[in-house]
Amino acid sequence: MNTLVTKIDYKWISLTLRNPWITASKLSTLPPEPVIPSKKPLRVELLGGKRYSWCTCGHSKKQPFCDGAHKFKAQGLSPLRFSPEKDSTVWLCGCKHTNNPPYCDGTHKQDFIVSAPLHEHTDP
């Protein structure tokens, strides 16, 4: 019986080490950090009463708006949905680090954004 238990324990340990069921990324309770698709704000014309989804992850190919890329590339982040009261031209944040989402507040001028790499889209 001792030999059987040892073989089972060895097999379980080797399978666990080769194919861990729980990875470190799944243990984190923090949402992923957004990537930086642009270091400048994006000027857009918004229609009053229309509902918009601003990309918060930075992976969308339709910046500054969401295209659903967060579902595969940034699970834990979701778009910010907003609806302006009236038609307006606004500057939406392109760096995804604004303190006034979805609007630009100048955060892109700070050193941590200026020195950060821009995200480049890669197709699978």
From TrEMBL:
It holds the Pfam family zf-CDGSH. Keywords: 2Fe-2S, Iron, Iron-sulfur, Metal-binding. GO terms for molecular function: 2 iron, 2 sulfur cluster binding; metal ion binding. Its cofactor is [2Fe-2S] cluster. The keyword Iron-sulfur applies. PANTHER family: CDGSH IRON SULFUR DOMAIN PROTEIN HOMOLOG (PTHR46491), CDGSH IRON-SULFUR DOMAIN-CONTAINING PROTEIN 3, MITOCHONDRIAL (PTHR46491:SF3). This is Iron-binding zinc finger CDGSH type domain-containing protein. It comes from Champsocephalus gunnari.
